[in-house]
């Protein structure tokens, strides 16, 4: 059975909740899943994954969460060829063009590892509402279609 691994960072609990929704939706789709907070793992966490998922918030002026910086930097030297990925971001639209910037930074970094993006990036303002949960279900369907 395919293994999906989720790494997340959460300051207010919104992104943690989003990662929990992803975890349960992936399990319901029939896949094995492991979910870890980013400060608990290194980038080699993805070594045995079939699909890699990042759930991140954007901090301040479009910055990566502090706790995700080392993980992000380690991606630069990682080869994830043959793996698929998707990214989910939470943010605040008050920041305009910087809204969910960290999610887009992760997409770019993961593409450089050789992994294939197979799910549209989901952007969620603050916490997940009903339409966001539907977008997360579609995200998981897109992952599942490639697994």
Automatic annotation (TrEMBL):
Residues 4-144 form the Flavodoxin-like domain. The keyword Transport applies. One of its GO terms (molecular function) is electron transfer activity. The keyword Coiled coil applies. Residues 119-146 form a coiled coil. Gene3D superfamilies: 3.40.50.360. Its cofactor is FMN. InterPro entries: Flav_short, Flavdoxin-like, Flavodoxin, Flavodoxin/NO_synth, Flavoprotein-like_sf. Signal peptide: none annotated. Pfam families: Flavodoxin_1 (PF00258). Keywords: Coiled coil, Electron transport, Flavoprotein, FMN, Transport. Transmembrane segments: none annotated. Belongs to the flavodoxin family. Low-potential electron donor to a number of redox enzymes. PANTHER family: FLAVODOXIN 1, FLAVODOXIN 2. This is Flavodoxin. The lineage of its organism: Bacteria, Bacillati, Bacillota, Bacilli, Lactobacillales.
């Amino acid at each position: 059975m395919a293994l999906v691994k989720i790494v997340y960072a959460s300051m207010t609990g919104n992104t943690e909740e989003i990662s929990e929704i992803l975890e349960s939706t992936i399990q319901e789709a029939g896949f094995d899943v492991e979910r870890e907070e980013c400060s608990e793992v290194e980038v080699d966490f993805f070594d045995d994954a079939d699909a890699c998922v990042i759930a991140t918030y954007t901090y301040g002026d479009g910055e990566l969460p502090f706790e995700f910086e080392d993980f992000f930097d380690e991606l630069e030297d990682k080869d994830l060829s043959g793996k698929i990925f998707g990214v989910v971001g939470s943010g605040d639209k008050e920041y305009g063009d910087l809204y969910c910037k960290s999610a887009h930074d992760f997409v770019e970094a993961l593409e450089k590892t050789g992994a294939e993006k197979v799910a549209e990036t989901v952007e969620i303002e603050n916490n997940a509402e009903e339409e966001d949960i539907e977008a997360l279900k579609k995200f998981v369907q897109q992952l599942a279609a490639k697994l």
